[in-house]
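Aim 2, interim progress. The first record below pairs a target sequence with its structure tokens.
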Amino acid sequence: MAAKKNPLKLNKLQLRTLVLAQVIGRDERQAVHHPNGDVTLSQLPHAHGDHVHVGEFVVSAKDASGFSNPAVWVALARKGLVREDGQAITLTAEGVSYETGLGDKFLEKSDH
């Protein structure tokens, strides 16, 4: 049986933030992979102009606004998808594998 999309009923901003964090987590240059399945993100990207570079993708700054919204991280942590220690964001194994349904909805490869 296929995994249900968004079983924790995350809102749109939480979903977008989580899927972008998952993209960063897949990039070995930007993340540390732990034996238990957790992934620590070395840094979160910042917007320049109207967009943000997330790995090899360009994302609208509006779609990535959750990166700078503390309430988003609190909600994701409360649901067990991330841990934040003040220094870094760690996707839990559950956060890494969470099905957002957004994996290919708004990403486009960077041309610069």
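The second target in this work package is listed in the same format:
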Amino acid sequence: MLRSLYTRLQRLSARDDAVWWMSAISFAESSFFPLPPDVMLVPMCLEKPKRLWFYTNICAFASLLGGLLGYALGFYLFESIGRMIIDFYNAQESFHHFQEMFTEFGPWFLILKGVTPIPYKLLTITAGFAHLDLTVFILCSIVARFSRFYMIAILLHFYGPQVQHIIEKRLMLVATVLLVVVVGGLLSFKFV
């Protein structure tokens, strides 16, 4: 089922109204949809490289807005809708683990995990359920989501089609390397 959906989304990326579809997917993925917007963002950026930053900004902003829906589902509607989404993805263990991480690391956990390609919906719903301060949630989400999609845009800008396979198949590895570089950089400033 996911392969069929993946193929359909890639076909949508070639349409004239692709930016609207990508926005909708990016919004929905942050709260309930199974596939990330990368499925559309990457081919759209490769097809029209001059619009790469426009597409990236739209994708990140839509993800941020969708994250607010996910937060609201966790904060206000966890028992009726939030739990149903967690159960649908069979992510109960991840949900409990994320709760523990929010308790231990707070907003840093949201920033660090929000950059990776793990399902962002789990983070947003958990943040709402954990009653993470909304302003903190928004600020962390801005950093996390824009960083995540800018990472893809930078790779596409410099390496183009050569990295498409790496982005699609090894995004977790790329995100982990980026995280190590960012955290290492932040720690080096702390100890200087």
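The chain has one domain: 1-157. This observation will shape the mutagenesis plan for the next reporting period.
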